[in-house]
Amino acid sequence: MRESTWVSLLLLLLLPAPQWGGPQDGRPEPEPEPERGPLQPFDLLYASGVAAYYSGDYERAVRDLEAALRSHRRLRDIRTRCARHCAARRPLAPLGAGPGAELPFFRALLERARCSRSCQRQRLGGPVSRHRVSEDVRSDFQRRVPYNYLQRAYIKPLARTREEIVQICIFLQLLLLHSWNAVLQPAVFTEEKMKLEGGQGCSG
């Protein structure tokens, strides 16, 4: 069992590396490629990916989950850029004293909000309301649940048993926390396995 698990791990390393986080070498992350056409809502892509995962269509699950993560990153980037753009174009007036002195401030605040909605609508290629998501979906992305599904979707075609799935899943998570040499040490692997197994999405 141990030999087959390590064979699966080595095969897994031949796959294109998923984007688990930011750049690892300290260089700025490259600018994301602009989406062609309207940006697809990430919650719909996420739901499609999860459904494909549970139906056993792991190729589609990987495709949709990766697309959901790209859409989520792109949406955050658009919101940040529009906020900066509109803050520069619509500076807030200082609050003054006396009756009605606060009106210029609130007027500028409303203009900035309209500017931001217009900017987002243009960059998203459609209504901003399409990208409002439920609290459950927002919580899943904050807790990195889509990465757990994606991780297992990469693993499933390589593993034959639940134990192999768990072993490979833990191995991938350890690579995020330790060096390659540390992960290959049985003592480190066993200790970290006890911490991670069952608590970080490595349930098979």
Description of the molecule:
With 204 residues, the chain is mainly α. The chain has two domains: 38-158, no CATH class; 160-204. It has nine helices and no strands. It has helices at 2-13, 42-54, 58-89, 103-124, 135-142, 145-155, 162-177, 180-183, 186-196. The relative contact order is 0.13. Mean pLDDT is 75; it is low at 1-8 and 10-33. It holds the Pfam family TPR_leprecan. One of its GO terms (biological process) is collagen fibril organization. Keywords: Glycoprotein, Signal. This is Prolyl 3-hydroxylase 2. Residues 41-156 form the Leprecan-like alpha-helical domain.
Tell me the quaternary state. Answer: single chain
Which stretches of 5+ consecutive residues score pLDDT under 50? 1-8, 10-33
Number of strands: 0
The chain-level structural class is mainly alpha
- Content of β-strand: under 5%
H/E element string? HHHHHHHHH
The value of Rg in angstroms is: 22 Å
Outline type: elongated
Tally of domains: 2
* Contiguous helical run count: 9
Could you give the distance between the termini? 16 Å
* Largest sheet properties: none
The overall average pLDDT, rounded, is 75
Range of helix content: 55-70%
Protein name: Prolyl 3-hydroxylase 2
InterPro entries: Collagen_mod_leprecan, Leprecan_dom
Region (Disordered): 20-39
Signal peptide: 1-21
Outline the fold blueprint.
Blueprint: H1 2-13, H2 42-54, H3 58-89, H4 103-124, H5 135-142, H6 145-155, H7 162-177, H8 180-183, H9 186-196
How would you concisely characterize the structure shown here?
This protein is an all-alpha fold.
Q: How would you describe this structure in keywords?
A:
single chain, 204 residues, mainly alpha, 2 domains, 9 helices, 63% helix, elongated, disordered N terminus, Leprecan_dom, glycoprotein, Prolyl 3-hydroxylase 2, signal
